Amino acid sequence: MVLSQRKYTLDILTDSGLEGCRPSSFPMEQNIRLTTEDDSPLVDAGKYRRLVGRLLYVQVTRPDIAFAVNTLSQFVSAPRETHWIAALRVLRYLKATPGQGIFLPADSDLTLVAYCDFDWLGCPFTRRSKTGYFITLGGAPISWKTKKQSVVSRSSAEAEYRSMATTVSEILWLRWLLTDIEASQTAATRLYCDNQATGHIANNPVFHERTKHVEMDCYFLRERVESGEIFPAAIHTKDQLADLFTKPLGTDRFRSLLGKMGVRDLHISVSFPFIYLGLPVGANMLLSKNWIPLADKLKGKLSEWKAKTLSFGGRLTLVKSMLGSISFFYFSVYKALIKLIESLEGIRRKFLLGGNSTTSKICWVEWKKVLAPKSLGGLGVASLRASNLALLAKWWWRYKHDHSNL
């Protein structure tokens, strides 16, 4: 099931005269800092307030615009031209994804998982930090928030502590609610945060002098950890979903986190070609340009290794394993061009002999001999051409004789 407000979103675009606007891939420009002194005052402040009010309603099912809408709502009393332009940017993003909403899978469990993050001194007016949290139930978003903290934090650990306390309060309320509807949480709820110092303090019963001023939050968190209701866990920044609620992000980072949040658009139209699991789908693979990503990936791996500093045995191992497996997925689906095979074999040959993209070394043994099995006097380096044909033949055999493995 998907909770979506597609019609309401399209109505907003129509009323704003932006149904034909150029779509945007993310709702707010990265590193933007909106202030009360930006540009000239907006002539019609009422239209800004009406738009922000409607966006507040949309973000009930759109966690991806929560941070942008929260930022825009701070200027409803005296909006300026730059604020209006930023609001139109959100509409352009909605134009790209009008049917996006919360995806509720039917086969998920009922496990609560929470993420919390902060932006230390994030408010440009008061220097108060910003708290952001994101909570899922069975992988589906059920609660999220972005807000300024009530006081200025003197350290990043303090800001994260307040962020954790706010998130834990919401977790406890959700646990009590789930208990009332007979969906009790028997295990501790995981709370992911990327400040390890905070996690250590929360788990360590020793009192810390440097955190005396946040003593209330400190004891509150410790009690919940000791009672088995909360389990603080560290998480890498690239997987911190709450990062989406503390600051504007660039396209790649925004799309990466959004894809992990349980937000889907069932009305999205697919245009070919597109990339799926690293493979081009619907592309004409008879064109050399569609094989460029594979060649670039192989060259990129080689640039990480210094052929001159590796022994011949080390280079041989890499040629057999890594440099052969990089093309595995491509070769499992598509028949490679002869020119591409020759180019990739040339790259592998130069690396094995200790050369690079600008210099070559003389090969005193025919490359076909190197590719031959050890039993025939070769080095057992698999031929890319043979590997390609073998992988394709495997699928053909399964299609003809063993449909259960397809």
Q: How would you describe the overall organization of this protein?
A:
This protein has 406 residues and is an alpha+beta fold. The chain folds into three domains: 101 residues, no CATH class; 132 residues, Ribonuclease H-like superfamily/Ribonuclease H (Nucleotidyltransferase, domain 5, 2-Layer Sandwich); 124 residues, no CATH class. The chain has 15 helices and ten strands. The strands form three sheets. The chain has a five-stranded mixed β-sheet with strand order 5-4-3-6-7. Helix 5 packs across helix 7 and helix 9 runs parallel beside helix 13. The chain is globular. InterPro entries: DNA/RNA_pol_sf. This is Reverse transcriptase Ty1/copia-type domain-containing protein.
Brief account:
The protein has 406 residues and is an alpha+beta fold. 42% of the residues lie in helices and 13% in strands. InterPro entries: DNA/RNA_pol_sf (IPR043502).
Topology:
Layout: E1 2-4, H1 6-15, H2 45-58, H3 66-72, H4 81-96, E2 100-103, E3 112-119, E4 130-137, E5 140-148, H5 156-180, E6 189-193, H6 196-203, H7 215-226, E7 230-234, H8 251-258, E8 263-265, E9 274-276, E10 279-281, H9 292-304, H10 312-320, H11 322-325, H12 328-333, H13 338-352, H14 367-371, H15 384-401
Parallel strand pairs: 3-6, 6-7
Antiparallel strand pairs: 1-2, 2-8, 3-4, 4-5, 9-10
Helix pairs in contact: 5-7, 9-13
